Amino acid sequence: MASVAENWQDIEQQIQRACEKSSRKPNDINVIAVTKYVNTERMIEALEAGIEHIGENKVQDALPKWETLGDKGIWHFIGHLQSNKVKDVIGRFHYIHSLDRHSLAKEIEKRASAKGITVSCFVQVNVSGEQTKQGIAFSEAKNFVEDLRIYSHIKVVGLMTMAPYEAEPESVRPVFSKLKQLQEELRQHHWSHAPLTELSMGMSNDFQVAIEEGATFVRLGTSLVGNDEK
Ligand SMILES: *Cc1c(COP(=O)(O)O)cnc(C)c1O
After folding, report:
1. Is the pTM of this model over 0.85?
2. DSSP alpha helices (H): ranges in the chain?
3. From the alpha carbon of 223, which atom of ligand 1 is closest?
4. How many CA atoms lie within 13 A of 109 on its CB side?
5. What does the pLDDT look like over 75-89, one tens digit per residue?
6. Which residues line ligand 1 (CB under 6 A)?
7. CA of 25 to the centre of ligand 1 (A)
8. What is the distance between the alpha carbons of residues 186 and 159, in angstroms, rounded to a whole number?
9. At residue 185, does pLDDT exceed 90?
10. Which residue is closest in CA terms to ligand 1's atom 6?
11. Which of 10, 30, 53, 57 has the most ligand 1 atoms within 8 A of CB, as the residue to mutate?
12. In Å, how far from its chain's centre is CA 102?
């Protein structure tokens, strides 16, 4: 397996190219190392390679890793979040990427206000409409984001989506451009609870296309830190 530093060099070049194609600045792209398939040693390698964002998608797997490395890096919870697990996430993870329902928002609010902190959240949108995908329906996203203003300890920093897996990443470009359009539409409202400056989209298979369409956070597992389960 290649070192994280080697993978990182390749990815930085790919980001550079995607930015050149779309007149964007590489500095505006944040890379999250998705470490759900790898152990803490590999996570340390990522941190030492200079990657500061860590992404995990299961609370029970993330907690032991957090116990070891929680004081390092910026932690992103990227998976489906059950309400009964919110108490373990608040105060540990700096960002939640999967806010997609009121029951979850309510629980985040409760736990965040008890700790006196504000939690930065992405609203996850099911742009493609696939049944298997989490996220609020595209048509309901505007009302949902607006209604989140009642939760004073939640800050909606952006929108997140997962594109369907396609062998040809070009074919998911419309998913990313639709999320970008929605972001621009919602930002016109200047809601103080929802600055919506960020777009979390793009994974190993499709991040170049996501960057060309406006991603500010890409979530890279396999291509960056590898996958011990494969
Ligand atoms: C696993 C996962 C990723 C990373 O997937 P790769 O294809 O390995 O890069 C990104 N986002 C979410 C939500 C994930 O669950």
Report:
1. yes
2. 4-22, 40-48, 59-69, 86-89, 102-115, 141-147, 173-187, 207-212
3. 9
4. 13
5. 999 999 999 999 999
6. 34, 36, 57, 78-79, 162, 203-205, 219-223
7. 23
8. 10
9. yes
10. 221
11. 57
12. 19
